[in-house]
User: Fold these one by one.
Assistant:
Number 1:
Amino acid sequence: MTEAAVRILLCDDHAVVRAGLLALLGSEPDIEVAGEAGTGEEAVAMAAKLRPDVVLMDLQLGPGIDGVEATRSISATGIHVLVLTTYDTDADIARAIAAGATGYLLKAERPEELFTAIRAAAQGRTTLSPPVASRVMNQMRGAARPTLTARELDILGQLAQGLGNRDIARALFISQATVKTHLGRIYDKLGVDTRAGAVAVAKEQRLLP
Amino acid sequence: MTEAAVRILLCDDHAVVRAGLLALLGSEPDIEVAGEAGTGEEAVAMAAKLRPDVVLMDLQLGPGIDGVEATRSISATGIHVLVLTTYDTDADIARAIAAGATGYLLKAERPEELFTAIRAAAQGRTTLSPPVASRVMNQMRGAARPTLTARELDILGQLAQGLGNRDIARALFISQATVKTHLGRIYDKLGVDTRAGAVAVAKEQRLLP
DNA sequence: CCTCCCGTCAGCCGATCGGCTGATGCGAGG
DNA sequence: CCTCGCATCAGCCGATCGGCTGACGGGAGG
């Protein structure tokens, strides 16, 4: 059987990029561009109206609601959102995934990859650009669900009181050297390198009572 | 017209104190002691049954639920609670007020003051013993509601990312000296002296988005 | 007009931190 | 038995922090 074409909605604040994608996708008979949006608001409205199979979403959208918010709104309606953007920072990736993105491609990706990613996204399957995939894996290794040992949580608790190493050591009846050792491991696991950052992450993920 | 007598419930774990109050209040024709309780549980139960105009509550109640908890339960039913206790520590005062106390008197207070405070409490008006009042004022001036300036919140935001002073300075286009100045003031306002403590307090009171 | 608050900046100094390398003891699990 | 994870400890070093003192300009309000 000949499957129906995948209907997609482009969302990028740069007309040039949209035109480029349009031209690129024109060569694929099974991919049909159902519409284009230049802002997050527009994307949300058009997605609701057109009900495309996939929304190609840039994360940088200028003023108004950003790509992450748009992704959140659209994916909440059951439409697959494939993020196509320039940057691959951990923060961007994490926010996009948390917002419900089905895939995350970099614009530097080869066109063929984009096509297959679109077809995959239409079926709800995930495609990640290699750099993104490796970053996601790294997130998983320790950052996603940092498994702190009981002792490390003890130290973290004292740390969140704003205590210095000496005071933490006294409070837990260990040496300052041990406190430093634990702190180093905590930093590793939480992906930070300062006490302030550790406290921020701890509070964020509610690692402390 | 002759207003009805103010009906009050005494709550103190010392029978001697209750007797003293009873004797003291006996001289006031417009104040009627509707009942006495020796524990927090008793106070809550009797308050629900008797529906007095005012509950005279001691904060120290021995075992079981304490005065603060009793105050919380009773004031939740719309009955005015006038705390009458011996101590005037910031912690006690803050907890009692947070629990919904209408007034806070010290037992060292002159009897006349107690009478007028009871009449005031019956109408929902607040009376505070002078030492308590001044403590409350001090709480207000900076400690209770840490009013951080917009700029201080900027610095705090960066701090919560775990950044060092140099990076914060760069991010906000100011010098490290300025960052340090702001940090010092933030520490003062939040009652801490380390960045980790500042982040903890900030997260705790949701000072950051 | 003068004062107070806010934001900016400087320099100094001791205390603390964070990274690194390396070591010991102990219990669980293969 | 031997390895691995966890907790413990040591010393070194450069970087950073936190406290302190002092200063300046601008805006709000008395």
Number 2:
Amino acid sequence: MIRVLIVDDHTMFADGVSLLLANETQIEVTGKCTLGSHVMPFLQRTAVDIILLDISLPDVSGLEVCRRVREEFPRLNVIALSMFNQASYVTEMLQQGAKGYILKNTGKDELVRAIERVYAGEEFFSREVTETIMRDLMTRKEAENRAKSIPKISRREQEVLSLIVNEHTNQEIADVLCLSLKTVESHRSTLLVKLNARNTAGLVKSALAHALV
Amino acid sequence: MIRVLIVDDHTMFADGVSLLLANETQIEVTGKCTLGSHVMPFLQRTAVDIILLDISLPDVSGLEVCRRVREEFPRLNVIALSMFNQASYVTEMLQQGAKGYILKNTGKDELVRAIERVYAGEEFFSREVTETIMRDLMTRKEAENRAKSIPKISRREQEVLSLIVNEHTNQEIADVLCLSLKTVESHRSTLLVKLNARNTAGLVKSALAHALV
DNA sequence: AATCATTTAGGGTTTTATACTGAGTACCCC
DNA sequence: GGGGTACTCAGTATAAAACCCTAAATGATT
């Protein structure tokens, strides 16, 4: 008998899945939690083999719940149950120790299979999820390149840039930072080069795009 | 016997709710659809009293499905079933003829009550939903004010603004749009006033903030 | 018919920004 | 101690933008 805890703030969903699993003879739903903060207390008084854990919870995030559970109850396995097929969610969840990740738009059979597999010590992921991850790995390099392209701005330049974005003139910036007008112009010039901009418009765009302000 | 059709792209959820309702003697789930485009064909060959309709569907939106259903089968009643407790969704759904709106995080009892009430010709809304609507009505005026604060930019001004954001000088803009430099300067001045900006930086910020480009 | 916003354009002035070159100080790292 | 980078400031010059004014043609709205 595989003892399962369902953690999902959507009562209707939790109830539904619970009934879904009730038909399975080898699976027993021993509890349901609608809040992340209820999970740890529940586990302390009830034996559970597997947690079906929703990522988006109203109080504590599913990631956090997973981390705590894995810390306190290492033998307990977590299957993430999510609406979102996004690589970032999946990887984060796996880093927190989840053994499976299935989407809510998969059918009952796949859910049951996931529970059985994870209970047997294996991993289980929805086909869509694995595809997403593979795509993500393939495009990871682009992401890194994008990260590299983030310009390195010195502290002073950042200050100047911030004031530029806030619609201040060079003279005003010089006054605020107690600098010579020429110095501000100098910083501005290097910013134009570093951010590959032609003028103020480009500086502002870059600043906002790279969240440098 | 109340015949119910469940429309939700999350198979697991649909299956769960179906089982949830299977215990109710007066309710019969006659079908499940995972795509909006499957609803109309299904209704043409199967008798249904009430549709539990998810708003977010992968192909046709729940709003569109609701509209079509109400058009073709006026006697059929729709209960919107959504994760999102947002006034905009609720009002749109009601405008499309839905008779009820309940959240997925409500329990089984409320779902059953909603089905019975709507079947009896009444309306039914989750408590949270009605609260949201009331709050929305109260803050409607602020929303209007916010809408008013969105600057009204003329076509030409929008073109000029777009080129400004793309780091073009006034002379370049004049050349591209076949205008006099003075005309471009004129537009730029009015843009400064309309967008309440001091200089190019302000124009770019406003343009990006209000998605005017 | 009259009003209003838009689009167009000019003349003139002042303020800002950009370009280019050069240079002294300071700090960190090897 | 030398090499690199950041920070500071200067002069000269041009380009661009901002601010002041006016004003005519158009089109929509009332």
